[in-house]
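tool=predict chain=A
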Amino acid sequence: MKIAIETDTKIVGVVEWVTVKGEKGTKTVKAKLDTGAFRTSVDFKVASEVGLGPVVDTVKVRSAVAANSETRALVEAEIIIHQQRFELPVSVDDRSRMKYTVLIGRDLLEKSNFLINPREIAEDKS
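tool=predict ok
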């Protein structure tokens, strides 16, 4: 079965290089694109390095593995994926134990023209 794909659709992988931009600069990292996550999340260290902010709100978040919810700060951020810029509030969390310091959620993906191919994974930059 063939699926019709719009001409402006960009096929991306589950893991992609993204640039996080804040008041102090930018940082490019590998991020996981997660259609199961509602909100985009950035690690504290990355948020601090690039100067994300200000805090615009707080949100209760419950991870798939946690029984209880926790409150996280929402900060303004600019995320760039494949030359497309997205400005949105992102949650800030300690992701140091995670494989990826940035998690891209549906809040960003629904604004994009990305089609996620689960077989695609970003290559390491040389």
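The mean pLDDT is 90. Residues 42 and 102 are 5 Å apart (CA to CA).
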